[in-house]
Design a protein that fits this description.
Bound molecules: CU-O-CU linkage, copper (II) ion
CATH architecture of the largest domain: Sandwich
Keywords: Copper, Membrane, Metal-binding, Oxidoreductase, Transmembrane, Transmembrane helix
Number of strands: 32
Strand content: 35-45%
Structural class: mainly beta
InterPro entries: Cu-oxidase-like_N (IPR011707), Cu-oxidase_2nd (IPR001117), Cu-oxidase_C (IPR011706), Cu-oxidase_fam (IPR045087), Cu_oxidase_CS (IPR033138), Cu_oxidase_Cu_BS (IPR002355), Cupredoxin (IPR008972)
Number of domains: 3
CATH class of the largest domain: Mainly Beta
Pfam families: Cu-oxidase (PF00394), Cu-oxidase_2 (PF07731), Cu-oxidase_3 (PF07732)
Shape: globular
Protein name: Multicopper oxidase family protein
Number of helices: 4
Largest sheet: 7 strands, mixed
CATH superfamily of the largest domain: Cupredoxins -  blue copper proteins
Organism: Paenibacillus thailandensis
Length: 427
């Protein structure tokens, strides 16, 4: 039953997607063609990987690796990626998680393209307009394929650095079989650096679980969420943060005069990133949990959201052991959110089921307006994936400026395959 639902989700055989016109995709504009071109090739294949803990995993990889190669480009580059499928019978696609691309390039099997079969290829092209930390993963039966290893990091560097940075390290957390990995390793990840250096740590959670991370040894700032800069981020100390499945946190940390910085998982002791080479810091005896609700400061020009919306939707996320639902229904039965180009859209998401549901929207970045009825007090917060926890309610705002047919789903990909998926559709 689960498998059936999953393939239906990703083959797009749903009432939601059948009841709408074929995807209309905006083409690249002339000026896009003047951007510098960056070409990449990714070959998906079955590969047996020897982990550094001695285990061997029958993984699915890009270019023999899981995570696949890190793709790093500069803001404004035109990215051209050719996907080859060597021998994955189920077919493969690539979805550019968090990057706003034309819908024809979104990589959702059965919705924006057919899955690429063994021996076939598909070329994606888009302009990387917004700097930030993103990732890519297969979106054909994604709960299976991402977990098998078909994923990687995608970094868009800004044309002009916003912060002085001596080291820029991207680290992806994933679960392969039963092992937690950081950039493919089970042991600790070591980032180079000497006292006084500023390290930008780009953390991507590619697991299905919320990870609570604690920084010991130095104060730090959270400078971006899901690739979107925080305005005026303050220093945090003895503070952990919950990074939900699919989310990215960018940290800026100065390596102290003596000592080591440890960014570690609270639940999984072995999962830690260290830099500097002094003595190991002791773990904070007590810790606060980061909240974006009052972090940073508002933009000087004040509110940017409208006072009324062209479209408002309310989505209640629910769950029992058999299905994950939105408004009591699962994928096949959930009507799409229909919008028109230019609409100002409000989406209210309520977590009624308990459990963590990181709510992800393709093709758009949304602004968080409020949490549990309270407007945000600090920096404007823009995300593509919002972690919702038991009984929380968030109001999200977006401008419908990217026509097409887009997936909206929980990024616990098991929940997505068990029904917590729907579509955003432009009429
Ligand atoms: Cu990373 Cu449809 O998701
Ligand atoms: Cu969920």
């Amino acid at each position: 039953q689960l498998h059936h639902l999953e393939s239906a989700v990703h083959a797009g055989h749903s009432r939601a997607s059948e009841s709408v016109e074929p995807v209309s995709c905006e083409s690249l504009t002339a000026s896009d063609h003047e951007s510098p071109i960056r070409k990449f090739e990714l070959t998906a294949a079955r590969t047996s990987i020897d982990l550094d803990n001695g285990e061997t995993v029958e993984a699915w990889t890009f270019n023999g690796l899981s995570p696949g190669p890190e793709i790093r480009v500069t803001e404004g580059d035109r990215v051209v990626v050719t996907l080859f499928n060597k021998d994955i019978e189920e077919g493969v696609t690539i979805h550019w998680h968090g990057i706003v691309v034309p819908c024809s390039q979104d990589g959702v099997a059965g919705v924006t393209q057919d899955a690429v079969k063994p021996g076939e290829q598909f070329t994606y092209t888009f302009v990387a307009t917004s700097p930030g930390t993103y990732w890519y993963h297969s979106h054909q039966m994604s709960s299976v394929q991402a977990e098998k290893g078909l994923l990687g990091q995608f970094i868009v560097e800004p044309k002009e650095a916003e912060y002085p940075t001596d080291h820029d390290a991207a680290i992806l957390l994933q679960r392969l079989d039963s092992s937690f990995l950081m950039n493919g390793k089970t042991g600790e990840a070591i980032v180079p650096g000497k006292p006084g250096d500023n390290v930008r740590l780009r953390l991507t959670n590619a697991t299905n679980d919320t990870m609570e991370m604690l920084v010991d040894g130095a104060p730090y700032r959270i400078i971006a969420l899901d690739g979107n800069a925080i305005h005026d981020p303050g220093l945090l100390e003895s503070t952990s943060f919950n990074i939900g499945a699919g989310q990215r946190y960018d940290l800026l940390i100065e390596i102290p005069e003596q000592g080591k910085v440890v960014v570690g998982s609270v639940q999984e002791e072995s999962l830690k990133i260290t830099f500097g080479d002094g003595p190991e810091p002791s773990r904070a005896a007590s810790r606060k949990l980061f909240s974006f609700v009052d972090y940073g400061t508002p933009m000087p020009d004040g509110r940017t959201e409208p006072l009324s919306f062209d479209q408002s939707f309310e989505l209640k996320l629910g769950q029992n052991i058999f299905v994950s639902t939105i408004n009591g229904k699962s994928f096949h039965e959930i009507p799409p959110m229909n919008v028109k180009k230019g609409d100002h859209v409000k989406i209210t998401v309520k977590n009624e089921g308990g459990g963590d549901h990181p709510f992800h929207l393709h093709g758009h970045t949304f602004r968080v307006l409020s949490k549990n009825g309270e407007p945000l007090k600090g920096s404007p917060i823009y995300l593509d994936t919002i972690l919702t926890q038991k009984d929380e309610t968030y109001e999200l705002y977006l401008v419908a400026d990217n026509p097409g047919l887009w997936m909206v789903h929980c990024h616990n990909l098991q929940h997505a395959s068990m029904g917590m998926s729907m579509m955003l559709n432009y009429e």
